[in-house]
Design a protein that fits this description.
The complex is a heterodimer of chains A (307) and B (398). By secondary structure, chain A is of the alpha/beta class. In chain A, the strands form three sheets. Chain A has a six-stranded mixed β-sheet, sandwiched between helices. A four-stranded antiparallel β-sheet of chain A has the order 11-12-10-13, with helices on one face. In chain A, strands 2-1-4 form a three-stranded antiparallel β-sheet, with helices on one face. The radius of gyration of chain A is 24 Å and the shape is elongated. The two termini of chain A are 33 Å apart. Chain B has 16 helices and four strands. Chain B has a four-stranded mixed β-sheet with strand order 2-1-3-4, with helices on both faces. In chain B, a hairpin with a 6-residue loop joins strand 3 and strand 4. In chain B, helix 7 packs antiparallel against helix 13. The chains are: A alpha/beta (307), B mainly alpha (398). Chains A and B meet through helix 1 and helix 2 of A and helix 1, helix 8 and helix 9 of B.
Chain lengths: 307, 398
């Protein structure tokens, strides 16, 4: 069953096409990542899915409803540009966000106090937002996103601006929500977050979906990588090495040939390579991303490393 | 529908609380004091200047006995028309050189003499700067004529007073309507800037994205509008409660002396409340729509002046109803949505029919809904998107 389904979404802003025929299928209960560099069309896609803006063409179905706003009480949304009323108390800000989604204000305050306590911000419950640090305010907004116990959580660049510790907390929160059966969609330009969290991803570049499916599928598009170190620098064994092999320090790095590891090993041994080390590595999501979206797009994403 | 109302209520409650508990609301409550203060100061100055400028002094060169006859005639005229429009007379005994005396008196500043009357009652001669003031010469003609006839007895005229005549009712009810219109206009005028800047907070705090993802934009507009209405009603209650001057006016007869409106006071006051709400909602919805296009407080300030001018123009248009109910302009002012509440309140003062008000209120409510709907759509199309703005005339392309 799909929590979100989008078919051929297009969004034009005057003469600029921001999203160009995006189709997505997000299964219920999964953590789904939208990957792509800044300006790829991730935020516009999310805003269309949420009904903030209407697509120029295409359809979307969110939690079984064609009009996303009809499903709003069951959705939690953390926008890329964080927004809170500075004069509001932390608990009131969370309760207000719940009230927007149909949660009674008194119940919202009660839940807000509990959530703030749980996240170590209990003492800040009745302090105004302007007195909170940026990180604290982000946590408050995140709690406001889940206060009404939504079935679908949409997070736009949720890790931006958070330190490593809070990024870890957020990852744990996302996993916990998913374990409870909640569908989580988040956009990011940091591949490591998607690699750690997501079961399914969509890679978006220049307004189009370059890949949509399981992370394993993305990886399986690449052949495993062989990393080989030998005592002999030359010999008959070299004929078993693909011409595309590159040297990284003392290692030779190349894709595992079609025949698999056994014929390769036999050729190396018979050819007198004198194997010192040999590792067959599964390609990472980053490699898959480069292969799918292109090296330039990967460069545009900053190629940020896992924290 | 219930969700729409609940969403609007969430926004209204937040906005009302934020407005009423803000320091700026204190200034809002103090707002009416400033025009009253300025009005008082300038009225005082104006009265002072007017009393000095409108009471010309005429120097009368005549023996005391003749002057007394002239002064007595002036006294009789003052009883009929009041002191204000009459010239002041000051007596100077004749001197041998009349011409020199005239010149000296015309040059004197204490008192500032406008003209000199000489030649006695038989051959009166008036000299002065009277080209722009024919009234002074006319008054003196009357005074001299009255003084010549020493008969001080006034002709008999039997006067019987009735409560009202058609002439006075029409005039006085028009006055009631005009006062009601002015009050309605001033109350709405104060709110325009507040409403214009309503969405700035959400835009600058980026909360708008969260709200737009959770509830219909129409509900947000309605919530904001009613929150401001509630805040202004609260302000109104405070002003009236604290308005000792207002109460004093009622007690001493200022307001109490206003003629009974054609629909009667209870209905008129009820209609006043309804038309205040409709006037506020109509202007508020329009201002909210205009203000929603602004992204900074500076832009709101730029918009404020033309908007205020627009309000004044509409007030002027609505005032055509006063005294000329059946005219084409008056009917147009009653039909045009933005002038309709003010025009209809003036109509209530002058015409007893109730059904036009029922129709007008429904008509105005329809326009409130329409303006809000268009405003919300305009907001969605032109503001709530990450791309560049599209001019309003291209909305249909989206």
């Amino acid at each position: 069953m799909l929590a979100v389904e989008a078919v051929d979404l297009v969004k034009d802003f005057n003469e600029t096409r921001a999203v160009d025929g995006v189709s997505l299928a997000v299964p219920t209960g999964t953590i789904y990542g939208l990957l792509g560099p800044n300006g790829a069309g991730k935020t516009t896609t999310l805003r269309m899915l949420l009904g903030i803006i209407d697509p120029s063409s295409g359809t979307r179905c969110v939690l079984g409803r064609d009009r996303p706003l009809d499903a709003a009480p069951e959705i939690g949304y953390l926008p890329e540009e964080r927004g809170l009323y500075p004069a509001m108390h932390a608990r009131d800000a969370i309760a207000f966000m719940g009230a927007l989604r149909g949660l009674p204000i008194a119940e919202g305050r009660r839940r807000a106090d509990a959530l703030l306590d749980e996240h170590g911000l209990g003492d800040w419950s009745k302090k105004s937002i302007r007195t909170l640090s940026k990180g604290m305010a982000q946590i408050v907004q995140l709690l406001g996103t889940i206060i009404h116990k939504p079935r679908l959580i949409v997070l736009d660049e949720p890790f931006a601006g958070l330190d490593a510790i809070n990024q870890g907390k957020l990852e744990e929160l996302i996993r916990r929500e998913a374990r409870g059966g909640v569908t989580v969609i988040f956009s990011t330009h940091v591949i490591a977050h998607a690699e750690r969290l997501c079961e399914e991803i969509a890679i978006i570049a220049k307004g189009k979906v370059a890949f949509d499916g399981r992370v394993d599928e993305a990886r399986s598009r690449l052949r495993p990588i062989v990393r080989l170190r030998t005592r002999a620098s030359d010999g008959p064994w070299r004929s078993a090495i693909p011409a595309t092999a590159r040297r990284e320090g003392h290692d030779l790095v190349f894709e595992l040939p079609e025949g698999g590891p056994e014929p390769l090993l036999k050729a190396l041994i018979d050819g007198g390579a004198g194997i010192e080390t040999l590792a067959i590595e599964r390609p990472g999501l980053h490699d898959a991303f480069v292969a799918i979206a292109g090296a330039r797009t990967a460069e545009a994403m900053g190629q940020e490393k896992p924290q | 529908m219930m969700r729409f109302i609940r969403s609007a209520w969430v926004i209204a409650r937040r906005d009302f609380t934020a407005t009423v508990l803000s320091k700026a609301f204190i200034f809002f409550l103090l707002g009416p004091l400033f025009p009253l203060l300025f009005g008082g100061v300038f009225a005082g100055i104006g009265t002072n200047v007017a009393s000095q400028a409108k009471r010309p002094v005429v120097a009368v060169i005549a023996p005391k006995a003749e002057f007394d006859r002239l002064q007595a005639a002036r006294g009789r005229l003052a009883q009929a028309v009041g002191e204000d429009p009459l010239v002041e007379l000051v007596n100077y005994p004749p001197e041998p050189d009349l011409s020199a005396q005239q010149k000296r008196l015309l040059a004197t500043r204490q008192p500032p003499v406008r003209a000199v009357l000489s030649g006695g009652l038989d051959r009166p001669k008036l000299v002065g700067a009277l080209a722009a003031d024919p009234g002074t010469a006319g008054q003196l003609q009357l005074l001299v004529a009255a003084a010549r006839t020493s008969d001080s007895a006034e002709p008999e005229l039997e006067v019987t007073n009735v409560a009202a005549s058609s002439g006075t009712i029409v005039r006085d009810r028009a006055l009631t309507g005009q006062i009601a219109q002015v009050i309605l206009f001033l109350l709405t005028l104060m709110l325009s800037t507040m409403v214009l800047s309503q969405l700035i907070e959400e835009k600058s705090n980026k909360v708008i994205e969260i709200i737009a993802a959770a509830i219909p934009i129409d509900a947000m507009f309605v919530g904001k509008l009613f929150a401001m209405l509630a805040a202004s009603v609260l302000g109104l209650v405070v002003w009236i409660s604290a308005g000792a001057l207002f109460i004093q006016l009622i007690k001493t007869g200022g307001v109490a002396t206003l003629p009974v409106p054609a629909v009667g006071w209870p209905v008129f006051l009820a209609l006043g409340v309804v038309y205040f709400a409709m006037n506020y909602l109509l202007f508020g919805a329009a201002f909210l729509m205009i203000g929603a296009q602004a992204s900074t407080a500076r832009e709101v300030q730029t918009m404020s002046m033309p908007v205020t001018f627009g309000q004044v123009l509409i007030f002027g248009f609505a005032s055509t109803v006063v005294g000329s109910l059946g005219s084409a302009k008056a009917i147009a002012a009653s039909v045009f949505p933005l002038s309709s509440p003010m025009a209809m309140l003036a109509r209530a003062a002058q015409d007893g029919a109730i059904w036009p008000h029922v129709v007008a209120i429904l008509w105005q409510a329809l326009w409130v809904a329409l303006i809000l709907r268009v405003g919300a759509q305009l907001f969605r199309k032109t503001v709530l998107k990450s791309g560049p703005r599209r001019p309003w005339w291209k909305l249909s392309r989206a």
